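Two proteins, back to back. First:
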Amino acid sequence: MARKFISGIDVAAAQADRHARLAEWARDVLGHDFADPALIDRALTHGSASRATAGSYQRLEFLGDRVLGCAVASLLYGRHDEPEGRLTARLHAMVEGPANARVARSWHVGPLIAMEPVSRGKGLADSENVLGDVAEAIVAAVFIDGGWAAAHTIVARHWGPLMAADQPFLHDPKSSLQQWALKRRLGMPEYLVVGRDGPDHAPIFTVEASVRGQPPATGSGRSRQEAEKAAAATLLARLES
């Protein structure tokens, strides 16, 4: 069978090398040994990627959102003897963008995402939106590869430490950033829209959040408010670290 080459690159060999690298990363960082490395490759492929052999993470994200929600709900039920309303509030905080992106950042997953250079240049590999989606896609990949027990183990290991009630992601990131700045007499945080991509019916906004005397941080979202929250969460995480 003839091998496929693109600009002198052996596509099959490059894909095999990526699968091997991602499988090793998954063992070391996630704690899961993939029987099918193509799944983790797909979970780490952005829709902008020019190579279409793996497909993007979008379908995995759909499944991962549900698996993650069920796993977190089971963990919360076992750890917190609280009314339904409080458990629901905790669940939403644990499975939405800021928490998922925080987990993805702890994996240092950004450089592993297959993405068009233009999209990477815009900072999408470190955006709240993309990282949150990737985290969900990875949960789905583990679920498909290893079943419920493997997925539950991953969620417990990597989302479990975020369940403490005093974690800052349980609060609105813009309010938390404002409190941080005012406490240090740095004035109010400022937000600036620095990008708008995508079609008119589904735009993606990129916002820059800044506090006087500190380097700014960016975040992306499907609305300006979502992007501002993402930027605030990124900046706050950096300031508090």
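And the second protein:
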Amino acid sequence: MEPYRPRRSVLYVPASSDKALAKIAQLSCDAIIVDLEDAVAPADKVAARQKLAGIVANRPVANHFGHHCEMVVRINALASEWGADDLLAAANCEPDGILLPKVDTPRDLLEAGDVLDDNFAPDSVKLWAMIETPKALLNIGAIAELGRDPASRLTCFVAGTNDLANDTGVLATPDRRYLVPWLMQMVLAARAGGLDMLDGVFNDFRDLEALARECTEAAAMGFDGKTLIHPAQIEAANRAFVPSTETIAGARLVKDAFALAENAGKGVIALNGRMVERLHLAQAEKLLAKAAAIGA
């Protein structure tokens, strides 16, 4: 099993913006998505792609806070005029991951994986998938199943809530009431496939209070983190997706209880008046690993 990587805060940075890219090492986010897609105008896409090798090669080993910051490249859709060249360029740069937009079926990921394999991209280059179309939601179980096969490289889903609302005509209300059923479907599929699941962006980067509420709700829904569009949003996401002190203490109690000699081999034990199973031990160990990786 790969070590836990926190993905609480994942910031989109336009590949065409030297000013934004220069600030990466000073940010406290867990991951950066160097964006060749939505954040780059059509006239600038080729120039942005040509800068990609330098961007990835010069990424900081650790950010200002001493933590490793993943670098992922979001390419244009493979069906677009830029997608195929974007994928080849990203494969040759060997980032931590490549985010595929407009994924509709498992075949989209398998074909991208074949390109990576044919170009000798190391296994460390993973695939992330945007879930942002009606077809993706209809096929999400089959797409997520690829996560159980390491050869597929698939490791993370990203909710594309803006595109999903646009394609379906669903009203994107502040409480996201009409999107929540689909968001929960994404979380369920991601868990079935052993994948991380990131929430979509919050568009009003000036309203940090509303962002914090949405992050807290996303954490309660089971998301691993949130995609962001502005550095000002990082702190709220980092705070929302950290296990609480009480939760960490409870996980330690469970782990310590199962470690006692008298509980060796037991499937169920009594702890502080409640029954605790081995599945709770697995949950506790996962949570403690997450807390350790974050530094909580």
